[in-house]
């Protein structure tokens, strides 16, 4: 099981001032610490560092199950998380997460969405990925529904 954040080309576009999913420029702010997880490096934006707040659509096309939501990014250059086999930092910062499984055509698979405890997050994601009809699992904030990362089999 691999966890991924935003692809580097997408993160760089936002960091260079490209518009977000709603056609707006990313908002620039300053991180106040642990509540600001970067979706590219999958670590907390360090306190006092510049960060971006923007609307991101982690799907290939608009369709009824393609949720758009607010995300944070490091304001400057950060290294992408790459493919992480263990839980990235951003998936250790909360007591609960919302997970949802999707098919290859990016449609939610009913019955797979659940708020799970952080202690069993990896196990719950792995159970969903074991299903033949599941292509990926998105992990979101249980409190704010913000997209955090995507898990795949490889």
Strand-helix topology:
Layout: E1 2-4, H1 8-15, E2 27-30, E3 50-56, E4 69-74, E5 96-102, E6 114-117, H2 121-129, E7 136-141, E8 147-152
Antiparallel strand pairs: 1-8, 2-3, 3-4, 5-6, 5-7, 7-8
Assembly classification:
single chain
Instruction: Please give the radius of gyration in angstroms.
Output: 15 Å
Query: What's the helix count?
Result: 2
How many domains? The number is: 2
- Order of strands across the widest beta sheet? 1-8-7-5-6
Query: What would the average pLDDT be, to the nearest integer?
Result: 94
Reported for the largest beta sheet, the result is: 5 strands, antiparallel
Shape: globular
Supply the helix-strand structural class.
mainly beta
Query: Separation of termini?
Result: 6 Å
Q: In what range is the share of β-strand residues? A: 25-35%
Topology as a string of helices (H) and strands (E): EHEEEEEHEE
Q: Which stretches are poorly predicted, pLDDT < 50 over at least 5 residues? A: none
Number of strands: 8
Classify the helix fraction into a percent range.
10-25%
Protein name: DUF1203 domain-containing protein
InterPro entries: DUF1203
Organism: Pelagimonas phthalicica
């Amino acid at each position: 099981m691999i966890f991924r954040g935003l692809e580097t080309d997408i993160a760089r576009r936002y960091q260079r001032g490209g518009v977000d999913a709603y056609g707006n420029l990313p908002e620039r702010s300053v991180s106040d610490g642990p509540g600001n997880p970067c979706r590219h490096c999958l670590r907390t934006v360090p306190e006092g560092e510049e960060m971006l707040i923007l609307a991101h659509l982690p799907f290939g096309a608009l369709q009824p199950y393609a949720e758009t939501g607010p995300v944070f990014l490091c304001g400057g250059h950060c290294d992408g998380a790459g493919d992480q086999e263990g839980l990235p930092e951003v998936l250790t910062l909360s007591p609960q997460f919302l997970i949802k499984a999707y098919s290859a055509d990016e449609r939610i698979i009913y019955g797979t969405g659940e708020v799970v405890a952080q202690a069993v997050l990896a196990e719950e994601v792995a159970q969903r990925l074991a299903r033949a009809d599941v292509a990926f699992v998105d992990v979101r904030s249980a409190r704010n529904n913000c997209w955090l990362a995507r898990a795949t089999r490889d």
